[in-house]
């Protein structure tokens, strides 16, 4: 079955008091290709010597290849960040391809014909905003809010997501809470979720 494609614009919507804090700093040179071999520690990656830069530093091949969705959540994320394209360094952008098996999910994280998407607003409202996307639709997840996607069709689905960072990372909520090393105290989690400690322990054993 042909893949159905939905475009998700993961656009960071934020109101900042200072324009200098609204985006990553503007580049002061033509480019700053990441030097993965550098031991310099900084907020970002050190620049490669411009004389050593090649066309391959600005290219990535493979976004057309379907990801293997044979896993517990039924989805696979193929990232295209500064790790894959060193030329993205300092540009403040990246993207991903997400493949979904039927009823596969891209689980809650901090970011065929139909794809269910949604996010939850901050306390105290905790409003759940959700929508069913069709082929060609675009949906925006506001920056910092927990969000998810789920393929609710009967064939495979593909989404292309744009992100507002060269290296956005991902924090999967369930893995973070129940799969931390060492474990978060079962007493603490039981109180936070208002459940019995045995339920917390059972969840921790799954991660």
- Secondary structure tally, helices: 3
Q: Which bin fits the share of residues in helices?
A: 10-25%
- How would you write the strand order of the largest sheet? 1-8-3-2
How would you describe the oligomerization state of the chains in this entry?
A: single chain
Beta-strand segment tally: 8
Map the helices and strands.
Layout: E1 4-9, E2 75-80, E3 94-100, E4 105-109, E5 115-120, E6 128-133, E7 147-151, E8 157-163, H1 173-178, H2 186-193, H3 197-206
Parallel strand pairs: 1-8
Antiparallel strand pairs: 2-3, 3-8, 4-7, 5-6, 5-7
Explain briefly what this protein structure is.
With 207 residues, the chain is an alpha+beta fold.
